[in-house]
Amino acid sequence: APNAGRGRCLCTAKGSNFLPPKSLAKLEVFPKSSSCEHLEIIATFKDSKQQVCLNPDSKWVQKIVKNLIKRRSKRGSAL
Amino acid sequence: APNAGRGRCLCTAKGSNFLPPKSLAKLEVFPKSSSCEHLEIIATFKDSKQQVCLNPDSKWVQKIVKNLIKRRSKRGSAL
Hints:
The structure is a homodimer. By secondary structure, chain A is an alpha+beta fold. Chain A has one domain (1-73): CATH 2.40.50.40. Helices cover 14% and strands 22% of the residues of chain A. The first copy, chain A, is built from 1 helix and 3 strands; from the N terminus they run βββα. In chain A, strands 1-2-3 form a 3-stranded antiparallel beta sheet, with no helix packed on it. The longest helix of chain A has 11 residues, at 59-69. The two termini of chain A are 24 Å apart. The A-B interface holds A 21, 24-33, 39, 41, 46, 56, 61-62, 65-66, 68-71, 79 and B 21, 24-33, 39, 41, 46, 56, 61-62, 65-66, 68-71, 79. Strand 1 (24-30) of chain A pairs antiparallel with strand 1 of chain B, so a sheet runs across the interface.
């Protein structure tokens, strides 16, 4: 889970390669910055409110983010 | 700017069609839910910490989100 330390990366490990889109309450994307030299993505789940770091390099994660935004894609994204 | 009312959409207007990627501190994506029937995207800016609603239908916004995640894209995203 992300640590709340100021001025450091929020995610210590690489992050999860998968997330069930239906259980997503919020997605936070932190571009690289002075406090963390790589992009970070944190998902917050609906029920548990649990926060999970996602792996920005994971094709699945990239696909979910893309579908999330292009919600009118024909396949009908689950969100 | 997003209103913090519980149980309602955070963004009242359609949102901005553009955002300068370099000034982005955080991007929050809220899938449609019981409290708001459409997807919302809120950008937080670096310096002012100001929050701005973005228009999820804007091609430019979709492109920024996609480039943000696919930071290894050849054009070299600005982030």
